[in-house]
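Hey team,

Filing this mostly as a record. A colleague (T.K.) asked me to run one chain through the structure pipeline before their review meeting, and I want the input and output archived in the tracker in case anyone asks later how it was produced. No errors, nothing strange. Just documentation.

Input sequence:
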Amino acid sequence: MAIKNNNPSGNRTRKPVSVFVAIGLCCFFYLFGTWQKSGFGKGDSIALEITKHTDCNVFTKLDFESHHNYVEIAQPPKQKIEAFKPCDVKYTDYTPCQEQDRAMTFPRENMIYRERHCPPDDEKLRCLVPAPQGYKTPFPWPKSRDYAHYANVPYKHLTVEKAVQHWVEFKGDVFKFPGGGTMFPQGADAYIDELASVIPIADGSVRTALDTGCGVASWGAYLLKRNVLAMSFAPRDNHEAQVQFALERGVPAVVGVLGTVHLPYPSRAFDMAQCSRCLIPWTANEGTYLKEVDRVLRPGGYWILSGPPINWKTYYQTWKRSKKEVQAEQRKIEELAEQLCWEKKYEKGDLAIWRKKVNDRSCQRNSAAICQSKDADDVWYEKMESCITPFPKVASSKEVAGGELKKFPARLNAVPPRIAKGSVPGVTADLYNEDNKIWRKHVSRYKQLNTLIGSMRYRNVMDMNAGLGGFAAALESPKLWVMNVVPNIAKNTLGVIYERGLIGIYHDWCEGFSTYPRTYDLIHASGIFSLYKGK
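Output structure:
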């Protein structure tokens, strides 16, 4: 409802008043401004006082040049870039610390000549090792398990010497690996099936394995599909390029031997170890070699022996040995196993399996035979002694010495017992978990920068300064494996890495690594140059 305006003339009476107010304000501000300009205003007197104190001298010579040109700018020193020339082709398969000519100058006793013997500084090569003529990118995994290019490893010796045992066959321009071995001519799969009838391989209880005297590493190659990582080693000897074949196949392996120094692995590292006709004299030197296997075998772990002297009644004549000799050898192994606190779990045909007890509560041991060393992980270039590595202390007969491990893959990121028990100085569970987060972030970024990481292209990976194994854990995949190297001058964390279900080795980067040229697809170096700065 509209409201009528009863005074329509009201607006007309207000307009003149507004006009007069506006005119009055304009006049006021005009007069105020005139007064200020006349000099009687306070603001102008302040401005005048400031002007009196101002130096208004005229500068006739003004310099507009930059006044810091006289400061000498430090130029970075010119670096001389050294271009390394190719080595002679005879060094195509150069292994600095296992060269045959140098090896033959050392005693053969106890395999000393097959151990690491590195060249002095004045004999080290200062050239780039060339690839063999016709070298090709290796086959991607899993094809590489069964095939390798002949041009990459041009050695046919094993195809003849081990033809009946089906180690390797030469076909056209490639080698084929049927999966055979001296003690498993029907194939590694069938052999592993027999082992799995005794050893819990399928459920993740067994993750890390050691193959002593590995040949072309078919045992390790076929364990991979069962999610078991085997560290294989063999010497560089008359079995041409056996470790080189293994690495070309994409299987973890190093050049090594059981001689007079400790194996470059921490105590309690492996869930399973085997000798498949490795011809290691287990009873020699008061059982020193078997005691070294015991050192690296985890409480509750398994040792497998296939080949001499097992099944000696059938083969002693074939081995050209007397019945008395091989019978005594097996009896001695049985006695050593009992001293080591191992229980025999299986013997059938050519195969025997022992299990190491989870602690020493039920062991009958001579205390004089126990090693007195405080650190069973301090082994780089250390001589082996004929003594037994003690079990870590336990509070009950059911407790696993050193700590119980989760099954893989839960084991990968669980807090390792060595950290939980405070055995690694300065490393706590919180620091360990934070380290894992950091490496997951780094690896995610690496994959953005290099899309081949995590693909089939990079199979053999190395971490030169592995720390707690965070890089390898973040990369964990059936497509690849990581050799975690813990430098001998770094904090000793290799035991932690093995407790995570990863593999690795001790090494001094001032020396050549125990491998052949061209055996890794990707090498990761975090902090390695800072670690060795000035050394």
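Quick notes for T.K.: The first strand starts at residue 147 and ends at 149. The chain has two domains: 91-392, 420-532.
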